[in-house]
Specification:
571 residues, mainly alpha, 8 strands, 7% strand
């Protein structure tokens, strides 16, 4: 790949930037007034001297990048800004800041003439880069500074321009990918802060944790109420729920968008905030409220929001997990299969974006593990390509979860759940028990969700075995089945009732409401008990192969006719 920025490529009237994406060349012409020409006039005022002192600290390419970055934001050049954000920043980080962080905002401020808006956005990228590099090693002060910068960003967006006394929509325009990443990173850092605080409180007896413990005991940053308030405020100010309701009914969303909701910045942030609330409620273990948030989101309708692939993947992952924990296995399987097919088709796009590749790869593996759990608890046919990948990734795990050895199956279920579940949080900020000892409440939150999941699995561990016996007969006595299972008649009746209950689930049919649906049984067989006899009926509908071949013949005929109409290439 060609170099992103070339400091020596001066042209008359300014500096020319060339970026080679591999297929498309983007040309940027920067006015000479914006470029930092270090060897300029010998006459300096104080601000110029300060800028030149900074220029001696930073590479010329970095300064030029920051100046042009600011210019694109000011001029609302979304196309060029998207290239800079998705590729340019990562390229500059790899070239100049592989072993260190980007310069702090105070160092950058004189270069961009103390542009408050640019500095807020720069700090958002700055702290995000710190988190990606340092992760668990960040101290409380750095985490708190990032929080207050997010407060500044959201206050600016929700309240309006600093220089205006009235609350008006701001004129800021950012790529949809960046807007989604702001919401996504905001929740991630909230999650990371809570995990860090929980870890510090649990280790407060260690000498190196005393100062951090004291600081975290008093800070009010990253409070759960403030995070929820931000997300709900973005939803409310954008009127996104009202817009989605009208859109789903075939109307014009702009009729209810209001002043803010008609602006892409607010409309997109409002939708992304809905997905953020879905994620947050899942982290707290409130799965009903998580799906309730998406009441106006139609999962099966394409919209402008699906263009942000990471948002779509996050939506289906958390919605699928919430369905799993609510025992709506068929909806969970549908959600996972839909998004895994989407990832298969768009895999190259994620590979092209280095900053997304690792996260998408992990969440892809997590969803295959969750899908494996769902299919063991609720067998049903799925797409062949997804099933092929599932067997490749989780074939051994599925066989262990289906094992008649209860201990082996239980261990495998726990391992799959531990790997695939989100990192749960507790909304409680007090991590000290009555004895003055700190508690790792994040671990407690995970243990609680694991216990709920294990109780559900333990109720179903014998159902696959019952299913395997029932498939062999059209009728059999209850005594015979009790002997096969080595259980008493009382226990057998309990297990048969459990079988009926667990395989009848509420299933989404159509419309936007994710909580709506009809009770359906998706079992491949059904049975009823008459006296002492069990009568079994196979309810699986045989696949009609003739219809499949006829459809393929028609598709081939259409393709053949299309090819015949194409002009013959000249030799």
């Amino acid at each position: 790949m060609a170099a992103l920025y070339h400091s020596e490529d001066f042209v008359e009237g300014g500096l020319s930037y060339a970026y080679d994406s591999g297929h498309v060349d983007y040309e940027y012409n920067i006015p000479s007034g914006l470029a930092m020409n270090v060897g300029a006039s010998p006459m300096y005022d104080e601000s110029e001297m300060q800028r030149h002192r900074i220029a001696s600290m930073l590479q010329p390419e970095v300064i030029e990048f920051l100046v042009y970055f600011q210019k694109c934001i000011k001029e609302k050049s979304i196309g060029e800004l998207q290239v800079i954000y998705e590729t340019g920043f990562d390229k500059m980080s790899a070239d100049f800041f592989r072993q260190e962080s980007w310069p702090e905002a105070d160092v950058v401020a004189p270069i961009v003439n103390n542009d408050k808006i640019f500095l807020m956005l720069y700090k958002e990228l700055y702290y995000r880069y710190l988190y990606s590099k340092s992760g668990k090693n960040l101290v409380s002060q750095q985490r708190e500074e990032s929080y207050y910068n997010y407060c500044d960003i959201f206050n600016y967006i929700l309240v309006g321009d600093y220089d205006s006394e009235e609350s008006n929509p701001v004129g800021l325009e950012l790529p949809n990918q960046w807007l989604w990443d702001i919401i996504d990173e905001f929740i991630y850092q909230f999650q990371a802060f809570n995990q860090y605080r929980s870890r510090v409180f649990a280790q407060q007896h260690k000498s190196n944790m005393e100062s951090e413990f004291g600081y975290l005991s008093e800070t009010s940053s990253w409070n759960v109420m403030s995070v929820l308030n931000v997300l709900h405020s973005l939803v409310d100010v954008s009127n996104i729920n009202e817009q989605l309701t009208v859109y789903n009914s075939g109307g014009d969303p702009t009729s209810v968008s209001g002043v803010y909701g008609s602006i892409p910045l607010y409309k997109n942030l409002g939708y992304f905030a809905l997905i953020g609330l879905l994620r947050l409620q899942c982290l707290f273990g409130d799965y009903y409220q998580a799906i309730k948030v998406l009441d106006n989101v139609d999962f099966n309708t394409k919209s402008t929001y699906t263009r942000v692939a990471a948002c779509q993947v996050t939506t289906y992952y958390y919605a699928g997990f919430a369905y799993l924990m609510m025992r709506r296995y068929q909806d969970a399987i549908r959600s996972f299969c839909n998004i895994l097919l989407f990832i298969q088709r768009t895999n190259k796009m994620f590979q092209a974006r280095e900053y997304q590749q690792t996260a998408m790869s992990k969440i892809n593996d997590q969803m295959y593990h969750l899908l494996a759990i769902c299919l063991v608890l609720h067998p049903m046919p799925i797409d062949e390509s997804v099933d092929s990948q599932l067997q490749e990734k989780c074939g051994d795990k599925i066989r262990k979860m289906q094992s008649r050895d209860v201990q082996e199956a239980s261990v495998e279920f726990e391992q799959c759940f531990t790997f695939a579940c989100p990192k749960f949080l507790s909304p409680i900020s007090n991590y000290i028990d009555d004895g003055g000892r700190g508690i790792d409440i994040t671990r407690e939150a995970f243990n609680l969700q694991l216990k709920v999941f294990q109780e559900e699995v333990n109720q179903q561990y014998i159902l696959p075995t019952i299913r395997s016996y029932l498939k062999l007969y059209t009728s059999m006595s209850m005594e015979k089945l009790a002997d096969f299972l080595n259980v008493t008649m009382v226990d057998l009746k309990f297990h048969l009732l459990c079988y009926k209950h667990k395989l009848n689930n509420r299933v989404w049919v159509k419309g936007a409401g994710g909580l709506s649906g009809e009770f359906q049984s998706s079992s491949e067989l059904d049975f009823y008990i008459d006296g002492n006899m069990i009568h079994i009926a196979d309810t699986k509908v045989s696949r009609r192969y003739a219809d499949y071949f006829i459809r393929q013949i028609h598709k081939f005929a259409e393709l053949h006719n299309t090819l015949k109409q194409l002009p013959t290439p000249k030799k």
